[in-house]
Design a protein that fits this description.
It is globular, with a radius of gyration of 20 Å. The protein has a domain of about 220 residues. The longest helix has 13 residues. With about 350 residues, it is an alpha+beta fold. A nine-stranded antiparallel beta sheet has the order 6-2-5-4-14-11-13-12-7. Strands 1-10 form a two-stranded antiparallel sheet.
């Protein structure tokens, strides 16, 4: 048994319209709610999960990655690391490391990991669950979300395997990365001025700039990379642990894109013939999920993988630390700063 998250009708209205709304006022207009009601509803939702800004990282020259490594004592990790957790799969205790880094530093990052890397998944395509993707039904009488399996596993929807757009070979401006970092850390609706104010608290070397300059960077560079906003509900981890689906095979991308449409799945990273999907599917969904997965040409090398409820490391990289001004332009820079790991016994 697990405690499902109750979602009110107004909360569902806001959740459903988040992906297509760039501002709070757009949510109010699309839902027919007043602005204050939208703000109050979002405050309540933050107690049940998290609101995410989902960009096309490739347009910033960035890439999210996940590494599964052999268990070892890790005291520090390179900058850009987002989280480290113990995972249990294939009868072994392993570690899952996630990071967000410039693509040009992918090899350097991996070489800096003080553990044997078993699996590397590059997020050449990166998705979060979105409520309007066809795999979720809201039941207002119960205030809960249920999966719609008939709408997700459609091979014809993803006919081409491994059609990945290259990560752009660009170096973004520091103010692009300040705004992006704030939206990833504080949510999609943080104001540009507030983003700069927060950055200055962390890094006094940042030069002040005008509101007009910040607005220019937001409109010309950040928003063209915006894909959607979304809300991810989180169930109690001691009742419904996070599960990882590490998938290999020529149809791995189809499975990942299908699973991420279901409620209680949160993140999917898709690489060439491999994918990693993370979620909290309750037990009532398991039989149907695994039954449908037999339709595809895939493998699960580690079987079912369970994530520990204890976070060893959880960090938010300040992405502007990856650039510096040199020779009249912004260039990528590998930070010497390392992330200290708190070892749990």
């Amino acid at each position: 048994m697990y405690r499902s998250i109750y979602i009110s009708k107004n909360e569902w209205k806001v959740i459903y319209h988040l992906p297509s709304s760039k501002t709070l006022r757009e949510i109010a207009r699309n839902t027919g709610m007043c602005l204050s009601s939208v703000q109050n509803t979002l405050t309540k939702l933050y107690r049940k999960g998290r609101v995410y800004f989902v960009p096309d990282y490739g347009k910033f020259g960035l890439i999210p990655i996940a590494l599964i490594v052999e268990p070892t004592v890790i005291e520090e990790l390179p900058y850009g690391t987002v989280s480290v957790r113990n995972i249990y799969g294939g009868g072994r205790i392993l570690k899952l490391i996630s990071a967000l880094i410039p693509y040009v530093f992918l090899e350097e990052y991996c070489n800096s990991i003080p553990a044997n890397i078993l699996i590397l998944i590059r997020g050449l395509k990166y998705y979060r669950w979105r409520p309007d993707d066809g795999g979720t039904l809201y039941l207002p009488e119960k205030g809960t979300l249920i999966p719609v399996f008939s709408n997700i596993f459609t091979k014809e929807e993803y006919p081409e395997n491994n059609c990945f757009r290259e990560v752009e070979n660009i170096t973004p401006d520091i103010y692009d990365l300040i705004i992006l970092s704030a939206k990833l850390h504080r949510g999609p609706f943080i104001r540009h001025k507030e983003a700069l104010k927060e950055a200055l608290k962390i890094d006094q070397s940042i030069a002040l700039t005008s509101s007009q300059t910040l607005s220019y960077h937001f409109k010309r560079h950040v928003m063209p990379a915006w894909l959607y906003n979304t809300f991810i509900p989180y169930l109690p981890m001691n009742e419904v642990p996070f599960r990882l689906f590490y998938i290999k095979g020529k149809e791995a991308h189809i499975v990942a894109r299908s699973l991420i449409k279901l409620p209680y799945f949160s993140t999917a990273l898709i690489d060439v013939n491999t994918a990693l999907v993370l979620g909290q599917p309750p037990c009532f969904m398991h039989e149907r999920i695994f039954e449908l997965l037999t339709m595809f040409d895939i493998e699960f090398p580690y079987g079912e993988i369970i994530m520990s409820s204890k976070s060893i490391v959880k960090s938010t990289p300040y992405l502007w630390k990856f650039v510096r001004w040199d020779g009249g332009r912004w260039v990528w820079w590998w930070p010497e700063e390392r992330l200290r790991v708190r070892v749990r016994k």
